[in-house]
Design goal:
With 127 residues, the protein is mainly alpha-helical. It contains seven helices and three strands; from the N terminus they run ααααβααββα. It has a three-stranded antiparallel sheet with strand order 1-3-2.
Amino acid sequence: MTATTLPLAPSGTDAQDAVCCAPIARQPLGEGEAAELAVLLKAVADPVRLRLLSMIGSHAGGEACVCDLTDAFDLTAPTISHHLKVLRTAGLIGSERRGTWVYYWIIPGQVARLGALFTPLSGPAGP
């Protein structure tokens, strides 16, 4: 296996263009939009919740049973439930009870909204 070095961030003019073009740098956020985005950012700011979101999103079939999520953590079931509730309340995941188990899935629009906040535009920033 051969090691490959990949740049973590663009440098020089490319770095300036990337920063200029990210939606968060184009114009100031309004108070309401900032409050809405803060809820999403707070929800994923915890390592357990970030892992849960990743596990749910990458699970086969696009949804995961809570029974598949709990074993990956050294936490109690109520703690996992709390973290899932925070993600659900933020609108990042949806859920449905099926018999004994609850199944979770990603809400693509909310996750995309969070990602779009820092994604540079394809073209250069305006003047």
